[in-house]
Amino acid sequence: GLMPHATNGATGKGYSPSVIYAGFALNGSTNTANNNTLIIDIETGEINGYNDHGVDENSTEIGGGFANEAVAGNKVIIHSGTIGSTDKEINVYGGKARELVKGNEVILDGGATITGNVSGGYGEGLAPTVEGNRVVFSAGTVNGMVSGGSGVGAALKGNEVIVPSGTVTAKEGIYGAWG
Length: 179
Known about the structure:
By secondary structure, the protein is an all-beta fold. Helix content is 0%, strand content 51%. The protein contains no helices and 19 strands.
């Protein structure tokens, strides 16, 4: 699995990048990011969303895949750690695209704390289709909301959140789909 790790070159000082994706396609002939997996298991510390200049980023997110057109079959697994900080919300997406977001997943299974929202799939754009995405939420705290699929103006179909067992907290609610 891919383990996020970055340093800014200064001795003894590290940082967390503002965006972490297992797959990222912004330009090119296919413009898709499919079947990527990002695994996060932080024993100590946090991912706090600062760029390589130490400047706070406004848009901070973690995801399995991002593309202009389509993402499918991407997965984010968060076992432990703190994603964000008291003054920095970080959102987690299984997949995020502007047209089709299908079959992506986020698994929260080890008691991590997420300071923003969590969505299995997020569609952004004029009229994206967000279909068959899910979040499996068996342990942890999400300070925002948890949704299987979400997007403003999106066609939302068959998205789900599964809470198999354990103690979970979603301070802004749990939704199969939100749009």
